[in-house]
């Protein structure tokens, strides 16, 4: 008899819990009714982590307590896959997506999630352009000179790792211009940068904050920026798209971007709330003081625009990875 | 250290015969290296279609290291065969261990390995500590209180101070 | 002079001193906890620095870094659990010392050599940053390649009694290090389609598994022996012992400074190279690995010598040499500062204020370290039957914390089993670790060199730095072979007059007599001996 009561009690408790979760999912108007978890798919201390923590800090005023959690692993696909699966607490979990979100599926075989369908896209927060740089002693002074030279001989480009946005930008460039570029992978920009500065590699498409000080001090020459618009930090440097129009580079667009995504079950009202909160943050003085320190510009896409952006990225990188024979 | 010696008793310094640990170990590693080179490398390391240089191949390092292990293992086996090692004092410590001792240790490890997410960090810590204390035949109550308190305090520290989300246990939810 | 007072103004604030003290303290504690590294502590502290003044923020992080470097050695010595990767070298001699009841001596040696190395490193940072940064820039893939080759020769000196076994362990380490996605082609290597293995085998679980877990396994598969009181009150470090080690400490610090100034090599390599050099030059080389104070001093000097020097490429070039300096770079950027030549031009006062703080941190380390020793060394008093279950728990939590994954717990226990088998088979674990760390660097730089030279091998000898390391590598190998022959001659008197590399000697003796080895053990590469009923033919190769 005792056992029966016990069983009954536990069943009741279980269903109560289940009921609560359903209720919380339905009453999106009260969202958030719990701490929000911001998952960072990279380890603590990296650029993604830094940006996430800053953004979380600023968003707290709008949305209440935000807990930042690092879940690194296999590019960023471990954390992304976990969010895609959903489960308990998924309605209060948001993820700081980065280029890895779209590149990962192209590189890691057999991922069990869809980078577009399984998510709700909130807002792109930051875009950091990549810059096509050559060492100061390099014979190339413009994108044209470089491409002409690279058509006739092998040149090398460096990256802080296979599958990084820096690497993929290089591969995309190589595909578009049909030049003979060879990828030299390093581990982190700490190893990649000296090789570039010393002229051991010919070119790199590195992130703006990594190379900007060296461009300013004259150790690197900037040939082009990879975004469709010129960067306010290098106003004299043309974009790849404009400088390389005759080589089929028109529309060339790569960048390191960071944006918030959530599980697909996130109610629309909650998404709107998140977008509003982020927009407020991004208009604030704090955020706009923070941006230039990373050579970044604020993201513009939100909601469906952001989704379109991601799905085009996913398509683009899948093709590049296939051509470069990275996914095997 | 004297007490330890007394416990073990006199150790006669004997040599192993031809069938000695070094030779056996050498042959086992050699077999493993052969398996690695002939099965694992070709099947689990993909090689890109064309390579400008064999040293660029993903298989280069594993194969070099594999061959090193293979040759060195043979060398070890041969050396052991012709120059067998001595029995050591420590070996006496390994004989006649009550089965319960290492079985309880295996139990503790299995709890951590297989039930960490299900039971949660705290419960696993307590269970494992208890079984390890029991393996050493500890009878004092305070030790078990310690075994209860430590996992709780430490996991709370990890979770709240160090921001490490140790699992709370799926079955308690 | 005007400048000087400005610097003092900026530096002499109570906040800065609190930041340094708190940083070092947190670093020592976190560094001492198995599985939690200085890297994690620095990363966790980063958000707290957003609201601080730039100098205070950086000093806090640098304090944690330095504290963590030392803190790793505490548990390495006391419970054979390296709190940080670099401390794996410290335990080679530190743990035997503790087991002999000299825990306090080992801890003090570690502390004082850390502080001396730290000071030397800081001085190098302040006065020679410019020169050392130039070296860093001249280090391309071929230079790295030879540096790694030279570093690989240290396997011989940490192999314990058998060089063959050491080399096997190192090769196994290399094999394990190749697991994951290939760096150049992105193809899968021995991942068996597991996501947990694609980012290579996690380092921290491997480290703890290899060194700490075998102690647990060993304890529960051995007879219960009474707890040996390691007597915290036992002998402390005497001045004469410290003086004896001083040469090794200074040598180690300089090695640390050079390695630290070159991005991407790291404290672990520095510690092992310093240890190996100390062993090579010490009159007591036979005692190394069995509880020699000088071994502890050398490895700690090597790894702490790195701490100040990694700031050289960071501050003068804006290049982070390791993960921690990458995080510190992030802290600079958050505060709107850009490390590099520009920093020295525009924020010179701040740079000097930082230097003051970094110098103070060495002194703070002495105080905090001494306090830490007093409390941490109580661990040596706890019987193993109570201590080990708690150590195991810490290790499990720590391994989980690295990637928040239970897979890493299994991995740690698996490497624990490997370490246990190594122990029972008389194979040293340190070479495995070195193979695991240096193997990928060797491979990466070999491939990078071929990629950047477009296949031309002459690049391997392109300049004075490559030649320097080529000759160091050859010298180191030659020395190892010479030492090996020396030790063999000592063991086998009949070999005294042989000059050739391969000798064949015949002599009559009892079947096993020549095998009795001295304390140091002979480093036998290969011995063939054919035994007859009356006489014996031995081939020593």
UniProtKB/TrEMBL annotation, chain A:
Q: Which of UniProt's keywords are assigned here?
A: Signal
Q: Signal peptide position in this chain? A: 1-28
Keyword Signal attached: yes
Presence of keyword Signal? yes
Q: Tell me which InterPro entries the record gives.
A: BUG (IPR005064), Bug_dom1 (IPR042100)
- State the SUPFAM superfamilies in the record: Periplasmic binding protein-like II (SSF53850)
Q: Which family does it belong to?
A: Belongs to the UPF0065 (bug) family.
Q: Any idea what this protein is called?
A: Tripartite tricarboxylate transporter substrate binding protein
Q: Which organism is it from?
A: Dasania phycosphaerae
Automatic annotation (TrEMBL), chain B:
Q: ATP-binding among the record's keywords?
A: no
Signal peptide limits: none
Q: Where is the DUF1468 domain?
A: 24-167
Transmembrane feature ranges: 24-41, 61-82, 102-135, 141-162
Asked if Transmembrane is a keyword of the record, the answer is: yes
Query: Which keywords does UniProt give here?
Result: Membrane, Transmembrane, Transmembrane helix
Entry protein name: Tripartite tricarboxylate transporter TctB family protein
The taxonomy runs: Bacteria, Pseudomonadati, Pseudomonadota, Gammaproteobacteria, Cellvibrionales
UniProtKB/TrEMBL annotation, chain C:
* Alphabetical keyword list: Membrane, Transmembrane, Transmembrane helix
Residue intervals of the DUF112 domain: 18-433
Domain of life, per UniProt, equals: Bacteria
A Pfam family it matches: TctA
Mark the transmembrane ranges.
7-33, 110-132, 144-160, 166-185, 197-217, 249-275, 323-344, 350-373, 385-403, 409-438, 459-485
Please report the name of this protein according to its UniProt entry.
Answer: Tripartite tricarboxylate transporter permease
Which species does this protein come from? Dasania phycosphaerae
């Amino acid at each position: 008899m005792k056992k029966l009561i016990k069983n009954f009690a536990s069943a009741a408790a279980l269903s109560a819990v289940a009921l609560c979760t359903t209720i919380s999912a339905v009453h999106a108007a009260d969202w958030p009714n719990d701490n929000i978890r911001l998952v960072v798919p990279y380890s603590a201390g990296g650029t993604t982590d830094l940006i996430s923590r800053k953004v979380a800090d600023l968003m707290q005023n709008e949305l209440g307590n935000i807990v930042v959690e690092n879940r690194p692993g296999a590019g960023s696909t471990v954390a992304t896959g976990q969010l895609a699966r959903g489960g308990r607490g998924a309605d209060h979990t948001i993820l700081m997506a980065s280029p890895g979100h779209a590149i990962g599926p192209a590189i890691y075989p057999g991922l069990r999630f869809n980078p577009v369908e399984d998510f709700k896209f909130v807002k792109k927060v930051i875009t950091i352009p990549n810059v096509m740089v050559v060492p100061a002693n390099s014979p190339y002074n413009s994108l044209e000179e470089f491409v002409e030279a690279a058509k006739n001989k092998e040149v090398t480009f460096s990256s802080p790792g296979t599958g990084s946005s820096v690497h993929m930008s290089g591969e995309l460039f190589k595909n578009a211009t049909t030049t003979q570029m060879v990828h030299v992978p390093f581990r982190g920009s700490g190893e990649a940068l000296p090789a570039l500065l010393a002229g051991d590699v010919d070119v790199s498409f590195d992130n703006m904050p990594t190379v900007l000080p060296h461009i300013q001090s004259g150790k690197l020459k900037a040939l082009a920026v990879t975004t469709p618009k010129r960067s306010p930090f290098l106003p004299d440097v043309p974009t790849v798209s404009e400088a390389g129009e005759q080589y089929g580079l028109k529309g060339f667009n790569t960048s390191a971007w960071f944006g918030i995504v959530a599980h697909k079950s996130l109610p629309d009202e909650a998404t709107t709330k998140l977008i509003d909160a982020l927009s407020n943050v991004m208009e604030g003085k704090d955020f706009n003081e923070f941006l230039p320190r990373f050579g970044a510009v604020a993201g513009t896409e939100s909601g469906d625009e952001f989704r379109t952006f991601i799905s085009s990225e996913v398509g683009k990188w899948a093709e590049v990875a296939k051509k470069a024979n990275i996914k095997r | 250290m004297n007490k330890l010696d007394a416990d073990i008793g006199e150790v006669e310094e004997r040599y192993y015969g031809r069938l000695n640990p070094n030779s056996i170990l050498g042959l086992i590693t050699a077999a493993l290296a052969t398996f690695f080179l002939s099965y694992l490398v070709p099947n689990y390391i993909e090689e890109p279609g064309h390579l400008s240089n064999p040293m660029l191949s993903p298989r280069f390092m594993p194969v070099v290291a594999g061959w090193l292990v293979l040759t060195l293992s043979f060398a070890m086996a041969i050396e052991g065969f012709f120059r067998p090692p001595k029995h050591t004092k420590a070996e006496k410590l390994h004989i006649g261990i009550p089965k319960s001792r290492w079985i309880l240790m295996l139990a503790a490890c299995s709890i951590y390995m297989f039930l960490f997410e299900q039971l949660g960090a705290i419960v696993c810590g307590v269970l494992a500590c208890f079984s390890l204390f029991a393996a050493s035949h500890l009878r004092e109550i305070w030790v078990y209180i310690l075994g209860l308190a430590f996992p709780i305090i430490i996991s709370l520290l990890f979770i709240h101070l160090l921001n490490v989300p140790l699992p709370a246990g799926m079955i308690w939810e | 002079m005007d400048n000087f007072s400005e610097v003092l103004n900026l530096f002499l604030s109570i906040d800065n001193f609190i930041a340094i003290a708190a940083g070092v303290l947190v670093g020592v504690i976190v560094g001492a906890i198995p599985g939690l590294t200085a890297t994690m502590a620095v990363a966790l502290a980063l958000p707290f620095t957003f609201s601080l003044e730039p100098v205070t923020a950086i000093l806090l992080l640098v304090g944690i870094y330095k504290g963590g470097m030392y803190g790793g050695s505490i548990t390495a010595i006391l419970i054979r659990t390296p709190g940080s990767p670099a401390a794996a070298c410290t335990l080679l001699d530190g743990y035997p010392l503790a087991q002999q009841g000299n825990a306090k001596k080992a801890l003090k040696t570690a502390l004082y050599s850390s502080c001396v190395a730290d000071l030397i490193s800081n001085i190098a940072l302040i006065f020679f940053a410019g020169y050392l940064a130039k070296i860093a820039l001249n280090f391309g893939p071929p230079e790295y390649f030879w540096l790694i080759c030279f570093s690989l020769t240290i396997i011989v000196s940490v192999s314990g009694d058998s060089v063959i076994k050491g080399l096997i362990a190192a090769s196994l380490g290399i094999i394990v290090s190749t697991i994951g996605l290939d760096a150049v082609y992105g193809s899968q290597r021995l991942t068996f389609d597991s996501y947990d293995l694609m980012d290579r085998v996690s380092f921290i679980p491997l480290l703890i598994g290899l060194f700490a877990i075998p102690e647990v396994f060993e304890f529960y598969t051995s007879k219960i022996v009474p707890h040996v009181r390691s007597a915290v009150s036992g002998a402390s470090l005497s001045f004469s012992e410290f003086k004896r080690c001083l040469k090794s400490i200074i040598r180690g610090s300089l090695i640390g400074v050079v390695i630290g100034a070159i991005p991407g090599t790291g404290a672990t390599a520095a510690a092992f190279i310093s240890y190996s050099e100390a062993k090579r030059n010490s009159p007591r080389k036979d005692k190394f690995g069995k509880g020699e104070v000088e071994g502890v001093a050398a490895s700690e000097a090597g790894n702490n010598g790195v701490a100040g020097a990694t700031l050289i490429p960071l501050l003068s070039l804006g290049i982070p040499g390791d993960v921690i300096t990458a995080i510190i770079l992030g802290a600079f950027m958050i505060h709107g500062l850009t490390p590099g030549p520009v920093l020295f031009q525009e924020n010179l006062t701040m740079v000097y204020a930082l230097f003051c703080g970094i110098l103070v941190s060495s002194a703070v380390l002495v105080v905090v370290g001494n306090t830490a020793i007093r409390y941490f060394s109580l661990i040596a008093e706890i019987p193993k039957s109570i201590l080990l279950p708690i150590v195991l728990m810490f290790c499990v939590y720590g391994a989980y914390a690295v990637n928040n994954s239970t897979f890493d717990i299994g991995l740690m226990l698996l490497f624990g089993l490997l370490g246990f088998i190594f122990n029972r088979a008389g194979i040293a674990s340190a070479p495995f670790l070195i193979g695991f760390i240096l193997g990928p660097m060797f491979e990466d730089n070999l491939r990078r060199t071929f990629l950047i030279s477009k296949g031309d091998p002459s690049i391997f000898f392109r300049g004075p730095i490559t030649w320097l390391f080529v000759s160091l590598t050859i010298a180191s190998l030659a020395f190892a072979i010479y030492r090996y022959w020396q030790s063999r001659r000592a063991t086998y008197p009949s070999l005294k007059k042989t000059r050739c590399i391969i000798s064949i000697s015949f002599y009559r003796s009892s079947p096993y007599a020549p095998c009795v080895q001295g304390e140091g053990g002979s480093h036998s590469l290969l011995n063939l001996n054919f035994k007859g009923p009356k006489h014996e033919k031995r081939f020593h190769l």
